[in-house]
Write a structure and sequence with these properties.
Aspartate Aminotransferase, domain 2, 2 domains, seven-stranded mixed β-sheet, 35% helix, globular
Length: 251
């Protein structure tokens, strides 16, 4: 608790300030709580599910999540990415943070390195450290796009993964298809050089918050060893519900 992130510590301090000074007198810019309520359709769907009488509704479920939930997400992702995705490629998690921790727990051996792009969401260091990994921060270009030459220099024999965040927190940068294709080619070249898989992990909870005709490219299209982590904390304003999942590239 003493070494928790400053974001969390600011949030806790904000809660104390609101209790002391009144919520209307405190402007909280710490955690990314959406300023909009969830859409009415979500409330309607939630009430329908709560009122539905299903035997075993509150029983233990499969470790990966309910099969019908995973199948529905797989169908959705298949349409989004233009590939066949099955329920077996989906794992339900406690938010995108839970998804990232599950991924890193599965992949990392002590001392394995995970590349993160500057600037990055501060919690990434904690997630990587949780599972014995070492964070390797790599600079971006001045417009926050990928600096492929810097990445090539820092990918080494202990590199297990590169953690990407698009749209990026905190910059909002969306990495375009050409940059991601070049990144995928770089990772595959380094895989051949070092004789080990290098995973591309894409953290995408903001993927639906894009404007001006911008589209977040498919991470599955650029690298076979890719894993997507996301949640509905931002796009449906549901951070407290902790509805997240990871999806493994079927390739």
């Amino acid at each position: 608790m003493e070494e928790s992130s400053w974001i969390r510590r600011m949030f806790e301090e904000g809660c104390a300030l609101k209790a002391r000074c009144g919520r209307e007198n405190v402007f909280d810019f710490s955690l990314g709580n959406p300023c909009l309520e969830p859409p009415p359709k979500f409330q309607q769907a939630l009430e329908a599910v709560v009122n539905e009488s299903i035997p075993g509704k509150h029983a233990y479920m499969p470790n990966a999540g309910l099969i019908e939930t995973r199948a529905a997400i797989a169908r959705y992702l298949g349409e989004e990415h233009g590939i066949a995705v099955g329920a077996e490629h989906i794992l339900m998690t406690c938010g995108a943070g839970g998804a990232l921790n599950v991924i890193l727990k599965a992949l990392l051996e002590p001392g394995d390195e995970v590349i993160i792009l500057i600037p990055f969401f501060p919690e990434y260091r904690f997630y990587i450290d949780n599972h014995g990994g070492t964070s390797i921060p790599v600079k971006s270009q001045r417009d926050f796009s990928l600096d492929l030459s810097s990445l090539e220099e820092r990918i080494g024999k202990r590199t297990k993964a590169l953690l990407l965040n698009s749209p990026n927190n905190p910059t909002g940068k969306v990495y375009d298809a050409a940059s991601l294709t070049a990144l995928g080619e770089l990772l595959q070249r380094k895989e051949r050089q070092f004789g080990r898989e290098i995973y591309l992990i894409s953290d995408e909870p903001y993927a639906k918050l894009v404007y001006d005709g911008i589209r977040v490219p498919s991470i599955f299209a650029v690298h076979p060893h890719s894993i997507l982590a996301t949640s509905h904390s931002k796009d449906l304003s549901l951070p407290g519900e902790r509805i997240g999942y990871l999806a493994i590239n079927p390739a």
